[in-house]
């Protein structure tokens, strides 16, 4: 017996703010959640699974129109034609109270009720599937006590949307804990809600498969579903990567690199682990340049130089398609600060000032608030996300201060880096 367990498809999730990226592959990013789901159906057919489980959040929110629901239904029909049954619990994003439009699903699809937990017996496979949907977005109670006891002699599966004891970045819904799940006596808990894949326990097997397709730079790494084979009571599980766009965050250390033409190689090295075995998809990469380099001075004299160098380096990579989502700078200029601070000129004065601010966290935070608070407060919300320094983060503020110092030093000394 084989089945697929997936969750958090978030089909047609709106990707906000793409317009501000020059040259973003907008169409491919927008259709990625759909394409990943089509790949899931392809694999289900190829692996000839007996059924497919969806542990909630198939949709991101109420549909704009019927296209979203009809797309999902069309893919379910493909499964039905191959005799593959489908079982669904609704989560916080696609709770009955969230999706206002109605669409009748095909016969081979079961959506669990939100009023009580139910058990569906598949007698031909000796499998019992227990589940309960979310009636509304917010479910505060532990749903597990309402789940029926296991069916003796059957392979028992619990289908549940939950945050468990809480997970960073995820709202708390239908909270429960692993002892409660284990004590239920089921063989497999097919969980959903948490977007990072996590195997909670082996026996019984308790798994968050993660979402099917990453949607932004914080949902990094391979995304997909679980392919589970049950034979003679043993469970074999395999993760299937189905994402068509893979998000990554890559740090490129530039310490000791002082020439622009060395950047391509440094980028390539940093990217190697990301591309290993995963070249056949679009890679969306957030790049952070770190370290102490003369190139910081060049950037200060001609802002945008380093980002352009990264875009150029991405163009040179032949075996995979790379889109650089953003280039962040966490750089310092190599400078003998001790000696510079002793100078009795503008350079010395600047370095002493910067050192004193950087060394005093309270002053740093105060300065940021005084100088930047009003300015940042007036930036529109959609611009502000991700791009604007956080005024309460000393690390980010120090980096900003070093950028400012490099800019002033470049003006004072008028010596660009080696080009
Ligand atoms: Mn959820």
TrEMBL record:
<dbReference type="InterPro" id="IPR041796">
    <property type="entry name" value="Mre11_N"/>
</dbReference>
<keyword id="KW-0540">Nuclease</keyword>
<protein>
    <submittedName>
        <fullName>DNA repair exonuclease family protein YhaO</fullName>
    </submittedName>
</protein>
<dbReference type="InterPro" id="IPR050535">
    <property type="entry name" value="DNA_Repair-Maintenance_Comp"/>
</dbReference>
<dbReference type="Pfam" id="PF00149">
    <property type="entry name" value="Metallophos"/>
</dbReference>
<keyword id="KW-0378">Hydrolase</keyword>
<dbReference type="InterPro" id="IPR004843">
    <property type="entry name" value="Calcineurin-like_PHP"/>
</dbReference>
<dbReference type="InterPro" id="IPR014576">
    <property type="entry name" value="Pesterase_YhaO"/>
</dbReference>
<keyword id="KW-0269">Exonuclease</keyword>
<dbReference type="GO" id="GO:0004527">
    <property type="term" value="F:exonuclease activity"/>
</dbReference>
<feature type="domain" description="Calcineurin-like phosphoesterase">
    <location>
        <begin position="1"/>
        <end position="196"/>
    </location>
</feature>
<dbReference type="InterPro" id="IPR029052">
    <property type="entry name" value="Metallo-depent_PP-like"/>
</dbReference>
């Amino acid at each position: 017996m084989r089945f697929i367990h997936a969750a958090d498809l978030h089909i047609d999730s709106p990707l906000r703010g793409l317009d501000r990226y020059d040259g973003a592959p907008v169409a491919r990013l927008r259709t990625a959640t759909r394409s990943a789901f089509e790949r899931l159906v392809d694999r289900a057919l190829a692996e000839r699974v007996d059924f497919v489980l969806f542990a909630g959040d198939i949709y991101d929110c109420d549909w704009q129109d019927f296209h979203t629901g009809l797309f999902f239904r069309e893919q379910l029909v493909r499964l039905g034609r191959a005799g593959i049954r489908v079982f669904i619990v609704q989560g916080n994003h696609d709770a009955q109270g969230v999706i206002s439009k109605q669409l009748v699903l095909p016969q081979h699809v079961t959506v669990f009720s939100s009023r009580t937990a139910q058990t569906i017996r598949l007698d031909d496979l000796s499998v019992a599937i227990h589940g309960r949907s979310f009636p509304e977005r917010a479910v505060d109670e532990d749903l597990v006590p309402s789940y029926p006891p296991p069916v003796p002699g059957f392979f028992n599966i619990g289908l549940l949307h939950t945050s468990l004891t809480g997970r960073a970045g995820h709202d708390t819904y239908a909270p429960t804990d692993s002892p409660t799940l284990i004590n239920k006596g089921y063989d497999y808990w097919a969980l959903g809600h948490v977007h990072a894949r996590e195997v909670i326990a082996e026996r019984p097997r308790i798994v968050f498969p993660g979402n099917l397709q990453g949607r932004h730079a914080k949902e990094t790494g391979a995304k997909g579903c679980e392919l589970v084979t049950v034979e003679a009571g043993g469970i074999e599980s395999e993760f299937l990567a189905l994402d068509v766009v893979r998000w990554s965050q890559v740090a490129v250390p530039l310490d000791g690199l002082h020439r622009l033409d060395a950047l391509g190689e440094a980028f390539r090295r940093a990217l190697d682990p990301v591309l290993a075995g995963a070249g056949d998809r679009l890679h969306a990469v957030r790049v952070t340049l770190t370290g102490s380099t003369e190139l910081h001075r060049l950037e200060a004299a001609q802002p945008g130089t380093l980002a352009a160098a990264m875009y150029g380096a991405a163009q040179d990579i032949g075996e995979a398609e790379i889109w650089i989502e953003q280039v962040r700078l966490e750089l310092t200029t190599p400078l003998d600060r001790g000696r510079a601070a002793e100078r009795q000129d503008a350079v010395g004065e600047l370095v002493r000032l910067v050192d004193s601010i950087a060394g005093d966290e309270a002053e740093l935070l105060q300065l940021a608030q005084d100088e930047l608070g009003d300015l940042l407060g007036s930036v529109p919300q959609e611009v502000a996300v991700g791009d604007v320094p956080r005024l309460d983060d000393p690390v980010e503020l120090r980096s900003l201060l070093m950028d400012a110092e490099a800019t002033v030093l470049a003006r004072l000394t008028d010596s660009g880096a080696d080009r």
